[in-house]
Specification:
0% strand; mainly alpha; elongated
Length: 177
């Protein structure tokens, strides 16, 4: 049962969180448009909350992109190396993943400090009067999910180096969807 729960959340956590953020964003934008053009009385808080929901959506979608390897990457050099020396390609990929993970962890700790400062100052958003740390906490959440996904890829890459060091690797394919 616990394995199923872990597997389910591992497969869908970004989808659930990003979907909620996107639905909130879209609903608030529609509400804002209706209030502005039908009732001629747009509330200031709805535009602000829609902006914050969009920011959360972006932070959470970064993890989704990493999970399915839809993030921006430059595979030309790695593909050229792979044609001649597949082990070298695997090692380069592993090094890139480790550097990326280190960057995400560093940014995570900086984002935690940013949230901590927002809690200390007690700053409120101008339109909706919600605590600003609630807006900023999306960044460490997104960075932690991204770090988890990069760690998963790093471990898979390490296992691939151990199991198949000399097997040919197909070149990376451009996404067509």
């Amino acid at each position: 049962m616990l394995k199923w729960i872990y597997s389910h959340f591992d497969d869908h956590i970004e989808t659930y969180l990003a979907t909620v953020a996107l639905v909130v964003f879209a609903s608030l934008v529609i509400f804002q448009v209706v209030m502005r053009y039908v009732f001629n009385s747009p509330p200031a808080w709805s535009e602000e909350l829609a902006r914050y929901a969009l920011v959360w959506f972006v932070y959470l979608s970064g993890s989704y992109a990493i999970k399915y390897q839809r993030h921006v990457r430059f595979g030309v050099v790695v593909d050229l190396i792979g044609k001649k020396v597949p082990l070298a390609q695997r090692i380069v990929q592993l090094v890139i993943l480790i550097i990326w993970l280190a960057f995400l962890v560093y940014m995570f700790f900086l984002s935690i400090e940013m949230v901590r400062r927002q809690v200390i100052t007690g700053q409120l958003s101008p339109g909706s009067q919600i605590p600003m740390y609630l807006v900023y906490v999306g960044l460490p959440l997104g960075l932690s999910l991204m770090s988890f996904r990069v760690l998963q890829h790093t471990l898979r890459s390490l296992v691939d180096i151990i199991r198949n060091p000399f097997a040919p690797i197909p070149p990376s394919q451009p996404e067509g969807d």
